[in-house]
Amino acid sequence: MRNTFAKSFYEAAQSDPRLCMIVADISPAGSMEAFRKQFPERFVNTGVAEQIMIGMCAGMSMRGLKPFAYTIATFALFRPFEFVRDDLCYQNLPVTVVGVGGGVNYSTLGGTHHAMEDVAIASAVPNMRVLAPCGLVGEVQIEQHEDSGFGIDPEKRENAEPDSNAHIVAKRGNHPD
Q1: What is the pLDDT of residues 129-142, one digit of tens each?
Q2: What are the residue boundaries of the structural domains of the chain, listed by start?
Q3: pTM of this prediction?
Q4: Distance between CA atoms of 94 and 67, rounded to whole angstroms?
Q5: Residues 135/139/144/150 CA torsion (nearest 10 deg)
Q6: d(CA 125, CA 115)
Q7: Positive or negative CA dihedral for 81, 169, 173, 10?
Q8: Cβ-based neighbour number of residue 158 at 10 Å
Q9: What is the greatest pairwise CA distance in the chain?
Q10: Is 13 left (phi over 0), alpha (psi -120 to 50) or beta?
Q11: Which of 39, 88, 89, 135 is the most exposed place for a label (fewest CB within 10 A)?
C-alpha cells in the first residue's frame, strides 16, 4: 500500500503543482523519495512534530494548496488529534491525512505504534471521511472527487499489491479549484 500510494501521489503531482506532502519523521522509509527529489519545495519533513504537520497542512490548504499529511497511523491521528479535529475538521479544510501501519503492523516497536482504534476515533469526528483499504489494494487515485479527498480505483486491481494493514484517513473538505 505504501509504495502504491507513493507512486500514485508522485504521478498526480506531475500535473498538479498544488499537491504537497508533509511528513512526520518518515521520509527515510523511502516511498516518498522520488517525490522529495523532484519537488523539494513541496515536501516538508517536520520530524517528530505531528501537531506541526497538521497545522502546516491546515495553513497550506487555506492558501489554495492540496496538502497531504503522511506518517505512521498512530502519529497521524492520536498525537495531533486536537489539531486534526479543530484545525482540519471543524473548519472543513481540504487536507488528506494518510496513516500507514494500521493495527499492530509495527508490533515490534511497541504499544505507541499500535493503531487499533484509529478508524473508530476518526469516524466520530465531523467532516472526516475514513477509508481503510486492506487485502489487495489497487492504484490509489489522487484526483479530487466530490465525496472524498481521493479514491481507490477497483478497475486497477490487476496491479494490486497485498497489504492487510494499510489505513488511509481522508479528510474531506471544501476543495479550492
Answers
A1: 887 766 544 444 44
A2: 2-171
A3: 0.78
A4: 8
A5: 10
A6: 17
A7: positive
A8: 8
A9: 43
A10: alpha
A11: 135
